[in-house]
Amino acid sequence: MTSAPQIYLIAGEASGDQLGAWLMEAMRRMRPDLRFTGIGGSAMRAVSGFETFFPSEEIALIGFAEIIPHIFRLKRRIREAVRDIETKQPALVVTIDAPGFCFRVVRMLKALGHVPHTHFVHDVAPTVWAYRPERAEEIAPLFSHLLALYPCEPPYFTRAGLPATFTGHPFAWWWREKGDGARFRRAYGLKPEGRILALFPGSRMGELNYHLPVYRDTVAALAARIPDLELVMLGREEHREYLKETMKDWALPVHLIQAEDKRGMFAAATAALAKSGTVSLECALAGLPAVTAYRAHPLTAWYVRRKVKIPYANMANILMQRFVVPEFIQEDFTTENLTTALTPLLTDDKARKAQLQALAEIATMLGANDATSPSDKAAAIVLSMLP
Questions:
Q1: pLDDT at residue 1, as a whole number
Q2: What average pLDDT does this structure show over 174-199?
Q3: Cβ atoms of 184 and 261 closer than 8 Å
Q4: What CATH code is carried by the domain that includes residue 59?
Q5: What's the CA gap between 367 and 357, in Å, rounded?
Q6: CA distance 19 to 149
Q7: Are residues 11 and 150 in the same domain?
Q8: Rounded to 5°, angle at Cα 38 from 12 and 47
Q9: Dihedral sign, CA of 25, 366, 259, 44?
């Protein structure tokens, strides 16, 4: 009797971890006998039967300068992941986002040639439309298929000889179900009619260190203008004690929210201050008016600006091809700018509605109204790669 097929998954940060969990759940619905192993975070570790080689939090790094202090540990983890895959000889390796780590693992495996019967699939196309389009040709030999979250992406890779499919964005499907804001307010002791600012400073320690000081000063400025303002923040479990200590002297208390209450938090919030990334897109999908802000190491900012060829950071703005959501990046990420942009979203219904009306079509663009979920589409493609 042959053993059940084994699929090795690698995800590198919080959003990829969630995508990996949904993908495994979809594959298991189609093939209950599958075995999963690899590198994942808390969402993937919660999937029954997933065996973690090491937690993905160890490789959840972004930026040029930010990675330098960890380069030797990352190189060691790449070698260890390669050896683990060689030992387990999975039928499939599915890498999810985190190109700096994932592509190096696959490239090394291909060069060594010790997994001749393993196919490779990558989920979340690298942003070649933003910078270095030649990367499509560089990664084409590494994978059997690429899964794209956005409709503009597949042509860049098919032209390079890599089969690519637009599956839609799983977060668009997930946000079809909205939360109960009133119940959330009751559960966390928030005022029934008060204004709530949702804070999303990031899931990495580097982001928290750069963002929280400006968030603190912005909160103080907003509190002086808006007497009934309350704050909520969705923080990772491993950061909760750090967040509590860091925010204990803020002008207003911050309610730290459990992950299972995420939908309710978005439904209850009046507006959001969110870092650029998946959470900014989620604000658009959930119908939460937002301001996008991000700050990185100056060397990282310099490097990115030399490379990136588009004027937007927020994916919602990229999809709409205009500044629907205000963005404040690097030197523009100031208390004055954030306070000025957030005040109307917290106090003026017309300002909130104007932003949301402009973003209304994004959910449809990303597959929210399709008959099949993006995760199910991706799972069917991945399973078609099984020998």
A1: 38
A2: 96
A3: yes
A4: 3.40.50.11930
A5: 18
A6: 11
A7: yes
A8: 90
A9: positive
Q: Looking at the predicted structure, is the pLDDT value of residue 62 above 80?
A: no
Do residues 333 and 298 touch, judged by C-beta distance below 8 A? no
Q: Does 150 lie in the same domain as 212?
A: no
Q: Which residues pair with 145 in a beta bridge?
A: 121
Q: What is the mean pLDDT of residues 116-141?
A: 93
Please state, in angstroms and rounded to a whole number, the distance separating the CA atoms of residues 214 and 6.
Answer: 46
- The number of distinct structural domains making up the chain is 2
Structure tokens at 47: 């999937």
Instruction: Judge whether residue 368 has pLDDT over 80.
Output: yes
Question: Which H, E and C letters describe the chain, residue by residue?
Answer: CCCCCEEEEEECCHHHHHHHHHHHHHHHHHCCCCEEEEECCHHHHCCCCCEECCCHHHHCCCCCCCCHHHHHHHHHHHHHHHHHHHHHCCCEEEEECCHHHHHHHHHHHHHHCCCCCCEEEEECCCCCCCCCCCHHHHHHHHCCEEEECCCCCHHHHHCCCCCEEECCCHHHHHCCCCCCHHHHHHHCCCCCCCEEEEEECCCCHHHHHHHHHHHHHHHHHHHHHCCCEEEEEECCHHHHHHHHHHCCCCCCCEEEECHHHHHHHHHHCCEEEEECCHHHHHHHHHCCCEEEEECCCHHHHHHHHHHCCCCCCCHHHHHHCCCCCCEEEHHHCCHHHHHHHHHHHHHCHHHHHHHHHHCCCHHHHCCCCCCCCHHHHHHHHHHHCCC
